[in-house]
Amino acid sequence: MDIASGYWNVPMHENSVAKTAFTCTYGLYEWLVMPFGLCNAVPAFERLTETVLVDLKWRVCLVYLDDCVVFSDDFPSHLVRVRQVLTRFREAGFKLKMKKCHWGRNQVAFLGHIVTPSGILPNPEKVKAVMNVLRPSDVRGIRSFLGLTSYFRRYIPG
Q1: pLDDT(121) > 80
Q2: Does residue 49 surpass a pLDDT of 80?
Q3: How far is residue 121's CA from residue 52's CA, in Å, rounded to a whole number?
Q4: Which end of the chain offers a freer environment for a tag, N or C, measured as fewer CB atoms within 10 Å?
Q5: Quick one: 129 exposed, middle or buried, by C-beta within 10 A (0-12, 13-18, 19+)?
Q6: Under 8 Å between Cβ of 49 and 41
Q7: What is the structure's pLDDT at 8?
Q8: What are phi and psi of 101, to 5 degrees?
Q9: For residue 122, what are the contacts with CB-CB under 8 A and spacing of at least 6?
Q10: SUPFAM superfamilies, per this entry (predicted)?
């Protein structure tokens, strides 16, 4: 599931609203919800999703920012869990980006990995990108390549 315009679900504190003011040809405007780009937007939104799903996280679902994956052992329990998460989202006023939501899947792409009933695999698209990267020609390029490939270190034996 993907929460639509996630940051806009975080109300601005009344003392901070004036700090978001901007002007244009139509007048002065202030944000009443958190706009994209604020330095504390990511932790504030993460804290909100943690609060909304506090007792479901790790037991029913995995959440990272605006992405949520519901997991289960069988389809009937999956429906119950999806309903629990959707109920929490509705109560919090979250809306979902339906184009990015996938329902009842046996495997799903999540944070650059493929999550399946048998385990976690590297996303083939990410592996292809690594395979097509240009050969590094300087120290900076080597460091960059090592950082890129270290993302997959859990899949490399030895």
Answers
A1: yes
A2: yes
A3: 29
A4: C
A5: exposed
A6: no
A7: 77
A8: -95, 140
A9: 112, 113, 114, 152, 155
A10: DNA/RNA polymerases
Per the structure, the count of domains in the chain is 1
Whole domain around residue 144: which residue ranges?
106-158
- Compute the residue count for the chain: 158
- Token digits for 152? 């997959």
Nearest to 34, CA basis, from 63, 69, 65, 71: 65
Rounded CA-CA distance 136/139 in Å is 8
Give domain status of residue 149, yes or no: yes
Query: What does pTM read for this prediction?
Result: 0.71
- Report whether 74 contacts 35 (CB < 8 A): no
Residue 9 · residue 47 · CB < 8 Å: no
| 132 domain-assigned | yes
What is the Cβ-side half-sphere exposure of residue 115, based on CA atoms within 13 angstroms? 13
Contact between 61 and 71 under an 8 Å Cβ cutoff? The reply is yes
| Tokens (6 digits) for 135 | 């050969």
CB of 1 closer than 8 Å to CB of 108: no
Q: What pLDDT is recorded for position 148?
A: 83
